[in-house]
Write a structure and sequence with these properties.
Layout lengths: L17 H14 L8 E10 L6 E4 H13 L2 E14 L2 E12 L5 E13 L2 E8 L2 H7 L5
Parallel strand pairs: 1-6
Antiparallel strand pairs: 1-2, 3-4, 4-5, 5-6
Length: 144
């Protein structure tokens, strides 16, 4: 799988923010088809509200791995592109575009979404997934 390579010079991210750096490392490992569990707290909470069969809550490294493996199993190729990054204290809001090819159908798909990652001590402790920017901003206590 391709690696994500968002750069500060692209104007997408302030790479000096440690929470942003943690989340971007996680995104890069995601695009490699894996999850660097060192970046995720052992008690991580994953919440998915995208209107898909994967909606729900997942807990801990096992839950995170289960969610990711189920997600990746749907595609023969897959990539997430960063479109917007908003640091907000412990939270990092990400506007992303998922693209891929369906494993069974062979159909190319594209799905924009928003994520809110909460980081403590260099690890993601909570990862929330939303359909819209407004939902993500509201979840982080911000105005869109």
């Amino acid at each position: 799988m391709d690696q994500a390579s968002p750069r500060e010079e692209d104007g997408l991210v302030p790479t000096t923010d440690k929470n942003v750096q943690t989340v971007l490392q996680a995104l890069a490992s995601w695009n490699e088809g894996r999850m660097d569990l060192e970046l995720a707290d052992p008690a991580i909470e994953v919440e998915v509200e995208l209107g898909s069969v994967l909606d729900g809550s997942y807990r801990g490294h096992h839950g995170l791995t289960t969610f990711l493996m189920e997600f990746w199993s749907q595609f023969s190729s897959y990539r997430t592109e960063l479109e917007e990054c908003v640091p907000a204290g412990d939270d990092v809001l990400l506007g992303v575009r998922h693209t891929g090819t369906g494993r069974t159908s062979g159909v190319d798909v594209e799905m924009p979404s928003w994520q809110v990652c909460t980081v403590h001590s260099g690890r993601v402790v909570r990862w929330r997934n939303f359909k819209t920017r407004a939902e993500a901003f509201a979840a982080a206590g911000l105005t869109d």
